[in-house]
Specification:
This protein has about 375 residues and is of the alpha/beta class. Helix content is about 45%, strand content about 15%. The protein has an eight-stranded mixed β-sheet, with helices on both faces.
């Protein structure tokens, strides 16, 4: 159903509380000469905190969020928030886009406009998609699932949303990060409905013979291990003791901002200069969504649930699969590694971009999605 009342309406008291907390931030004792190599840089964070407290206009962004085409669906008692962008062509291909962490539905709205109305961006209207962007459970406006032990899997919620609620007999899927896992499970579980999936990351094979690894695959696994040792502490914490972390991040907006802004810098193709990849307002709107909806804690659940075996593992995906690798993303597997699990029919090495291509390189991403699914429109 459509959402006729404002999606979000932050009270003046909530805004004043946020500003008071920001202005009263208790800063840690500085380390001599420390910068981004030991965590969020204090100079960059102080600047963002000051702007969040005194210059950032939440009301303008709140109005923009409320102007988006938001809807809610009730899937067996589980409310799911989603955006819907109707394609400009009568035969538009439905596609579900799934965000990751520390992202939100908002990150994909610009990409959705390019996909739904390609003629506004120099493309062909015949390539239009009808775009659905759900908020993952526990993120922003989709409540967390009520049970840890027996929840409906997210990919099943998405199929119910796309097929049963919205009436799409056949549809496409795209995702990166957590969204790549959801899209993979969706294609694996519902090949009768999913025409294909477009991914920015791939699941590792459930099992493989180490002696069968190519030199390229071995080098990839070594790079993953090195990245995990250097950058993976956040994932380990969110997978093992997420609630301990969540108390501080829910209470301190500066702490919340530090936790996510480090990822936007480290995982993007910004050359170490955060402002060259993202505007301050974008970063602070993402942080504000987590803050005002109090969902940083519940956004950790996918990590914990996967680590505890509560999330279905991807075994074999036979629907046509495209993989797009951006050079500054977290990992760049060789095609042969992806083919151990997926029916890979398109494999693209992008010239630039990182973990957040819908913001960093929306034109490149939209083009790759469009090119991949053009052949599959005829077969749905």
């Amino acid at each position: 159903m459509s959402h006729r009342t404002p999606l979000i309406s932050v009270t003046d008291a909530e805004l004043n509380d946020l500003r008071s907390r920001l202005l009263g931030t208790r800063w840690p004792v500085a380390w001599p000469g420390a910068g981004w190599e030991v965590g969020a840089d204090v100079g960059a964070l102080r600047r963002l905190v000051a702007y969040w407290a005194s210059g950032y206009d939440w009301r303008a962004h709140e109005a923009a969020i409320n102007a988006l085409p938001s809807h809610f669906a009730d899937i067996d008692g589980a409310p799911v928030h989603y955006l819907r962008f109707d394609g400009e062509h009568p035969d538009a291909l439905p596609i579900v886009l799934t965000h990751g962490w520390p992202s939100s539905f908002l990150e994909l709205a610009g990409l959705a406009d390019r996909l739904a109305a390609p003629s506004r961006h120099g493309g062909d209207a015949a390539d239009a998609f009808t775009v659905i962007i759900p908020s993952l459970p526990g993120f922003a406006f989709s409540p967390q699932r009520p049970s840890l032990t027996d929840p409906p899997q997210t990919h099943e919620l998405w199929h119910r949303l796309m097929h049963d609620e919205l009436g799409f007999e056949r549809y496409a899927a795209h995702g990166g990060d957590l969204g790549a896992g959801v899209s993979s499970r969706l294609g694996e579980a519902h090949p009768e409905a999913v025409v294909g999936i477009h991914l920015l990351a791939v699941a590792s094979p459930v099992a493989y013979d180490a002696s069968s690894l190519s030199v390229e695959e071995q080098a990839y696994l070594e790079s993953v291990a090195a990245w995990s040792a250097e950058e993976g502490a956040y994932q380990h914490q969110q997978s093992t003791r997420p609630l301990t972390l969540s108390y501080g991040l829910t209470d301190s907006p500066a702490g919340l901002l530090a936790w996510i802004v480090e990822k936007y810098r480290a995982w993007s193709d910004c050359g170490g200069d955060l402002s060259s990849g993202f505007g301050d307002d974008f970063i602070l709107t993402q942080a504000s969504l987590y803050w005002f909806t109090q969902t940083i804690s519940t956004s950790f659940r996918p990590y914990y649930e996967y680590a505890r075996g509560l999330t279905r593992r991807v075994e074999r995906v036979d629907v046509p699969t495209a993989v797009a690798l951006f050079p500054a993303d977290l990992s760049r597997p060789p095609r042969s590694w992806a083919e151990r699990t997926y029916n890979v029919t398109r494999f693209t090495h992008m010239p630039r971009g990182g973990h957040f291509p819908a913001i960093e390189e929306p034109e490149l991403l939209a083009h790759d999605i469009t090119e991949f699914f053009r052949a599959h429109r005829r077969h749905r």
